[in-house]
Amino acid sequence: MPLVRQPSAQADGSVVRDSSKWTVSTEACKAVANVTADVSVLSGLYLYCGCWDAGHTSADSVENPNGYFWHAIAHRQEPDPANSAYWFRKTGKHPIFPKLAAEAANSGYRHSGEWDPFAFIQYCEAAGRRPGSPDEQVAIAVQLLEWQLLFDY
Hints:
By secondary structure, this protein is mainly α. The chain has helices at residues 26-33, 39-48, 52-60, 65-77, 81-91, 97-106, 117-128, 134-152. The two termini are 18 Å apart.
């Protein structure tokens, strides 16, 4: 699961924001499109496979905390931290937050007790500016935990 929608920062420190350079597996997107499942589940699958547009569209059609959560993840990957925060505010305190907080701490993410999705947005933003860093690796690992917990919920 990608930390961000576009490739990591370039060697000169610049970040590619040109959507033509985003890597998407069209085969993966087509495979997910053929899955019969709840739209919320499809959103998670699309995002996991890097099919951002389809994941975003799916999440946008789910009017409940799970859909809002997937929508927030999509915008965190975009990256659009303000929009991600908006969708996390709509999500509210999700039932997976306590387990996510515990598992994230076990993965090396330093936080203060309760899960704070807004702090994690900022952590991912900072980690994304340091490709290959330990923080980027932790952010990716925690994002995968988050995805697994939400997908299984």
